[in-house]
Write a structure and sequence with these properties.
two-stranded antiparallel sheet, 36% helix, 242 residues, alpha+beta, three-stranded antiparallel β-sheet
């Protein structure tokens, strides 16, 4: 009786290569791969720091950064609530991109950020240009790296203080302003027109009394329950109402 043939187990080399292949920016695993290149001290609550993204940028994309510049679009002033706006631009060249076209290898990506007391931690609010520059660079790096659902650590603010120039006890608060803004945008309401119709000061939102702000919030909540109550003369949300 012939002896049974011994089975030979062969390793599927193509499968092994697929498992060890480095993800590309078009792969679903790309974001996790990029974040894995960061050290623990280059993340804050899971969010990458701008310094960390800058360090790994060239290695992750196999590129060379040829220019990184920041342009201050808006400087802090009393008339703009001491707001700073900065745009950061990255110019880089992909080293091993599969093309002979130099135009396709050369990449330019920009990111912008504006910073004022209402979106900045209070310990940094006296340095809005510096904070805006860091946030703008972080956004440019994230965009170039094609990271999904990731925010740089510097873009988050945890300890925002109310407007530094108004009475935070008797006047409208930052939380109330944000609530009014969110609901008005959702309901397509022009805040200034609504305030004028109610007989409130609309030129400077921070002069509104705290008690009146509560009534405004209640009115918006009632509109949310019954949108048919919103009259045509107060429709048309304007992002520059504050």
């Amino acid at each position: 009786m012939p002896r049974p043939k011994k089975e030979t187990i062969e390793t599927d080399s193509s499968l092994e290569q697929a498992e060890t292949k480095q993800p590309t920016p078009n792969d679903i695993e790309w974001t996790d791969y990029v974040l894995s290149l960061l050290s623990d001290d280059e993340k804050i609550m899971g969010n990458p720091t701008t310094d960390g993204l800058r360090r790994i940028f060239e290695n992750a994309l196999d590129c060379v950064v040829v220019e990184a510049t920041s342009n201050v679009i808006q400087t802090p002033d009393i008339s703009n609530e001491k707001r700073a706006t900065v745009t950061h631009t990255l110019r880089y060249v992909l080293k091993n991109y599969d093309t002979n076209s130099q135009d396709l290898k050369n990449r330019v990506v920009s990111g912008s950020a504006d910073v004022y007391w209402g979106n900045c931690d209070k310990i940094y609010r006296n340095h809005p240009v510096a904070v805006a520059e860091t946030r703008a660079e972080g956004r440019a790096l994230r965009r170039a790296l094609k990271l999904r659902k990731v925010v740089a650590a510097e873009e988050l603010a945890k300890d925002i203080e109310d407007h530094p120039d108004h009475d935070t006890v008797n006047k409208i608060t930052n939380n109330q302003i944000n609530f009014i803004d969110v609901l008005s945008k959702r309901l397509d309401i022009n805040v200034n027109k609504m305030l004028e119709k109610l007989g409130y000061e609309s030129k400077n939102i921070y002069n509104i009394e705290h008690a009146n702000a509560i009534e405004i919030s209640k009115l918006l909540s009632s509109y949310q329950q019954d949108i048919s109550a919103i009259t045509e003369d107060i429709k048309g949300y304007d992002t520059n109402w504050k």
